[in-house]
């Protein structure tokens, strides 16, 4: 299945979301890997999910990371393809071993970056043109056409949701958006 634009789905905590997104042709699957952060996923569960999913690249969402030295354990336990962080986490590093994504809030200026991100995630509809490919956090399917028409937007970011119970999941909101993105 092909999508009209680049799609990252973050905060994945269950196999149902990961498999659904992979089947729909999502490009990146993000997992919160810093203990104590919302939607944190243990490395054992992450490895089980990763064993069932092929296709999308894996993003280690390292929001809340306190020390650069903690990254080594994350890389060892999760083996991600990308790292994703905010400006606070990025400030911890002089260099990074993987391609990375930096997230900025609406109307925030992109910090002066010593390192060059693969993508910049922007929250809100006010897109600040960036020298880097921009992914926009999508709040609803109503925003989709406006975003797709914006030449500064490379793709969209969605978030996974909790399962009702293992194997039982409501995909309606995510499905509405991904189905609109399917290539006819």
From TrEMBL:
Gene3D superfamilies: Aldolase class I. This is Phosphoribosylanthranilate isomerase.
């Amino acid at each position: 299945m092909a999508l009209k634009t680049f799609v990252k789905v973050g905060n994945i905590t269950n196999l149902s979301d990961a498999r659904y997104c992979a089947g729909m042709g999502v490009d990146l699957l993000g997992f919160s890997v810093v203990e104590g952060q919302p939607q944190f996923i243990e490395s054992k569960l992450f490895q089980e999910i990763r064993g069932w999913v092929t296709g999308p690249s894996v993003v280690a969402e390292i929001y809340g990371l306190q020390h650069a030295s903690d990254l080594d354990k994350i890389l060892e336990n999760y083996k991600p393809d990308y790292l994703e962080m905010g400006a606070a986490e990025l400030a911890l590093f002089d260099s990074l071993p993987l391609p990375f994504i930096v997230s900025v809030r609406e109307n925030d200026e992109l910090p002066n970056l010593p390192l060059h991100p693969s993508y910049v995630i922007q929250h809100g509809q006010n897109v600040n043109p960036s020298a880097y490919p921009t992914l926009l956090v999508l709040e609803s399917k109503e925003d989709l056409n406006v975003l797709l028409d914006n030449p500064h937007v490379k793709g969209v970011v969605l978030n996974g949701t909790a399962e009702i119970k293992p194997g039982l999941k409501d995909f309606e909101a995510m499905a509405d958006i991904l189905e609109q993105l399917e290539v006819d």
